[in-house]
């Protein structure tokens, strides 16, 4: 009977290697709304209970899963948080440039987002410094966006040298709160090439004004973006220009110091 049970278990379990099973378990724990036991998890994933238990036990020993001895249930462990944080900024660039970003926030009263290019057409918010104002913008670190959206998207388009036709093609797949006119977006990209910063007023998010620029890493790859964010109505055209010029100066400083020494 034991042999028959083992054969049945083996026949019903999917043919996935241990790495694939481990990743599937981590994804499951990350999305689970409540802690769950081994049998429930193995049923949901169609894994052999013995394999599920073995991997969960190893994950718990390393801190990537949390085991509750009272309920015999598993949830995602705290070690996964550290792993995720590291993946946002593998070179720890945000920590290096944080003092300069903090000074910029104090001077401009604008919140600042630090973006990292993670794929051909995606960026992730790898760091954020809030302004000291009572009314201020907050963004969640880890947020991912299309590369060419918002002010930082215009800045990337400008630095990458996209033509108007290429820009229009990219814009067709973007979803905005208030979509910009293609011709206006192209004009703003051309302006960014002249002054070094781009502006988004209410297109990405209603009531929000963003000024942005982009940075190259020490290897010359265009991998970083900086966005200064203020509430619309608390910043006029003169303020936008001042923040933009301060942002360009910050870019020069970082390129000559922190980023050059990575």
Short structural description:
With 262 residues, this protein is α+β, with helices and mostly antiparallel strands. It contains 10 helices and 8 strands.
Could you explain how this protein is built, in words?
This protein is of the alpha+beta class. The protein has ten helices and eight strands. Strand 1 and strand 2 form a beta hairpin. 30% of the residues are buried. The N terminus is likely disordered.
Shape: elongated
Q: How would a crystallographer describe the biggest sheet? A: 6 strands, antiparallel
Helix % is: 40-55%
Computed structural class: alpha+beta
Question: What is the distance, rounded to the nearest whole angstrom, between the alpha carbons of the first and last residues?
Answer: 62 Å
Task: Sum up the structure in keywords.
alpha+beta; 10 helices; single chain; disordered N terminus; elongated
How are the secondary structure elements laid out?
Layout: H1 2-12, H2 18-31, H3 38-45, H4 49-62, E1 65-68, E2 73-76, H5 79-88, H6 93-108, E3 111-119, E4 122-129, E5 144-146, H7 150-160, H8 164-171, H9 182-195, E6 198-201, E7 208-216, E8 222-231, H10 237-256
Antiparallel strand pairs: 1-2, 3-4, 3-8, 4-5, 6-7, 7-8
Helix pairs in contact: 2-4, 3-4, 6-10, 7-9, 8-9
